[in-house]
Batch of 3 targets.
Target 1
Amino acid sequence: MTDTTTSSDTSDSGTSDAGSGVEKVAKLIAGFRFAMMTTRSADGKLVARPLTVQDVEFDGDLWFIVARDSHEIAEITADSVVNVSFSSSDTWVSLSGVAEQVDDDAKLKELWNPAVDAWFPNGPEDPNATLVKVVSDSAEYWDTPGGRVATVFSLLKSRITGTPYDGGENEKVEL
């Protein structure tokens, strides 16, 4: 792992070690159930699709259950570079990495939950159910502690004082 670099950070000295960067990213995405995974289509266009995050303990890897015959599998087979993003009213996280299809029955059963049955009614034994593992190599996040109230306050303060908007914490993290 390498050091964390900061593009704009209002909460600390601007640098932190990679371990604390991973911890911060893990903390930020812990509350998200859904992510947008961006892949490259056969004609070269970027395509983002919502997927449900299956593993809640982020260690740099993300897991998704998808259909074996899906566009996602075809696209990551052709070009494994992906982006996974998370967004709320006060937190944004963008992860870059490499995706791969993983056929691992034990892992599929471990990650299976009742919500997945809506897409695969035959359970984890469904031959069309497979895993996508995204190994993240970097992340960038924007976090506005205090949520909307703090954001509105910062916007008003910027407007009144004529100073640039101080929108919270933004860091790039090498994972």
Target 2
Amino acid sequence: MTRLVGSAFDKEDDGDVIVTNRPSPRPKDASTIILVRRDQAQPRVLMGKRSGRHDFMPDKYVFPGGRVDRQDGRVAAFNELRHVDDNRLRFQTRRSPRAFALTAIRETFEETGLLIGRSAEMPKKAPEGWQALYDMDIAPSLKDLRFVGRAITPPYRPKRFDARFFMADAERALIDERPPIDGAELHDLQWVTLDDASALDLPSVTRFMLDEIRKRLSSKTDPGPPFLRWTRRGHSADRI
């Protein structure tokens, strides 16, 4: 057994991670959105606590998000991703870039009740998982989402995800000012400052992305999304 070090994934929350000989599961595509409010003295981000019944990161505070569904890429949108984000999302994947952004919007609605979109006349029949938004005549809006990071769960974890992280200005992206609503997936939803968020019980990747958001909010430059993954040589961290 070998202890892994020097990685955003190298430790469980209370102890060491060990590598076993069991087969490594294939990562499932996922998307997460980091909503940022700037209407107070300090920027705040939306976070919630995962249910203790989850077998993946139970009781941890995270940003809204989840697994990409097959139908997500087929949803009609009010507008599309910026060209630069579309291009970056194409790196090492065959999936449509818009599918990742649409997943983040759908999961945010399912987990918090918040709407990232615009009013529009929508078709009566929606792709699976989108009927509630279609019934409200809400078209998802992609242009305010910024692709800010990607992370693949290491091969020694029992569940693995290839997660894309988006950042959005809440005042521009959300359709209204409704408060987030706790649900089965996330509870204790709250807008917290970056310092207060750092004090929560966070998965290591969430903490890494929180630091990335901090850097982006304090700088006008775009260094490109970080890409955290595991290669044959070990942990790799570079930018797309």
Target 3
Amino acid sequence: MIRSLPLLLLALGSGVAPLAAQGRPLTVSRVRDLTFGTVLPGVPRVILRTDPTNSGQFDLVGAKSNQVLLTFALPLVMTGPAPATMPLTFGGSDAGYSSTQAIGSQVAFDPNQPFLATLNKNGRGSVFIGGTAQPSTSQRAGPYTGTLALTVAYFP
């Protein structure tokens, strides 16, 4: 068995100081990391964007009804015990956007392509991400980690 640590989510522009567009702040917060858990050699581990425990999630807060352009920087591998890596893939519907911030009411999109979303009337939205870890049949045991980044461009 191979233990996969969370794929850390990084929200570019988030943190202590919110992004500002024409005086209107935009906050991007990481809610949870994408986590593959225990992975067996040779058995792909799929995490759906609708998985309430293992999918990654970012929450957005900005001005009501403003548009945001979501762009992911996706890792090709997770890094494990030197020099081991585990391939990752992200398919055409592995990301989702919900203006209601509900995991069950997402619009699917391809995380490999930029996606234009609209914040709700309260200026909120959530981005969800899943993916697939693809261990080889001879995958080395140990913890594996990686970093995934979301860039949010704000259009007031």
